[in-house]
Amino acid sequence: xxxxxxxxxxxxxxxxxxxxxxxxGIYVCGPTVYDETHVGHARPAIVFDVLRRHLTWRGxxxxxxxxxxxxxDKIINKxxxxxxxxxxxxxRFARRYDDAMRALGVLPPDVAPRASGHITEMIDLIxxxxxxxxxxxxxxxxxxxxxxxxxxxxxxxxxxxxxANRERVEAAPGKRHGLDFALWKAAKPGxxxxxxxxxxxxxxxxxxxxxxSVRYLGQPFDIHGGGADLIFPHHENEIAQSEAGVGKAFxxxxxxxxxxxxxxxxMSKSLRNxxxxxxxxxxxxxxxLRLFFCGAHYRSQMDYGADGLNEARAIWERFRAFLRVAxxxxxxxxxxxxxxxxxxxxxxxxxxxxxxxxxxxxxxNRGEIDPAQARAAVVAGLGVLGVDTSTEExxxxxxxxxxxxxxxxxxxxxxxxxxxRADAIRDKLTDVGVxxxxxxxxxxxxxx
Length: 448
Fold this sequence. Notes:
By secondary structure, the protein is of the alpha/beta class.
């Protein structure tokens, strides 16, 4: 078994070699909690939930950390808009985010650190960067000097001059270079603040994730994940401030999921063109949404719309139909799950993994493999994708015996030469999707 990932750092696909197997440390950038959770947030949550489930299925001991950014400009702006304390805003929307994750069937993280609970670690990291010549105080704030880090731009693949020309830069009191970014922000009236060696203030966004990830996973750790929109500046800045003066990598592998578009534009809070998770789950269900996202490779962009969602709904109904009629009690052996596992090992290729599960359904329906074993393999594979099949458990135990009973009645009718009744039973079974094949060994049935 060899797992391969496409590392954003360098862009090449390479074998996954954990730092301390079987342990694997994963850090995923969580939400900035200032507004409702929309479908654009659902994609990274599901992508990295599937990654976690797959590595666990492959036998790794995964420590999964997903933070909550509860100290940020956007939260402060929202608190001013609503006229409530910023901590109230953060708590309100953090809880709604957790509700959305439960509705999507996303496993809770092993650790869910909040920025407000790790200010001490951030101050210590900032102080070490100042001591190493990589940061400087200015007008009560502290800035990171991008020119001090030779590797700046290596994640986004752009040099310092190109970034300075392409990116919007802002002047600030005490700031030396346009791309320098705030590690510590001087306190302003009405904003939350903490004491520090540089005066009262609060941390910048980027330093938060560096401090929290290393606090729980050490440095380096195995996998850092997030949306593609975080590559620059957030993740680029995390690397710079975490590696400066340390002499070792921050994270071995960087994985980024593509955007979710709606109406030709990226779904986002700022554009107000989003669909809330609770509305999407209410209309389609969590399983359909998960199959929708798994229908595209995690690195590709996706369009959120009725056509793709209805296709995902049809896929789920096909799986449900098979699970309801195939007998339970089989074993999901490695041979049956070989193609599924190989697809998932190949850079988390969920479209190919779904195709492998569809092939199992078809083979089980045709009787080419034991339907009970096919059913067990499909349940196992869907479980890795986070699709909840528990509502279908027991259905086959009810449906199967009923079909067998009707087939016995059909055989009795044929022996009595009551062919009209025998044909009527067969027609009724056909109407509900149960196909009958007569053979020398008796009738066989499968779900069409």
